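As promised in the previous annual report, we have extended the structural survey to additional targets. Below is the entry for MGMT family protein.
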Amino acid sequence: MRSYEKVLDIIKHIPVGKVMTYGQIAKFAGSPRAARQVVRILHSMIRKYNLPWHRVVNKKR
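The corresponding structure token record, generated without further manual editing, is:
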């Protein structure tokens, strides 16, 4: 599975009522320092895959 596919899968499976940070998603995908890439993936594929973008937050919130 490619890294962007892992990121998409993780985002799709964030439970209702829960949130994850970009860094947490990157860590679970196997690239703990790739939070910015998670942002890019989410931004570019949000409509194509109907991703729950509102469940992904910045770590400072």
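Helices lie at 3-12, 22-29, 35-45. Strands lie at 20-21, 56-57. These points will be discussed at the next consortium meeting with the crystallography subgroup.
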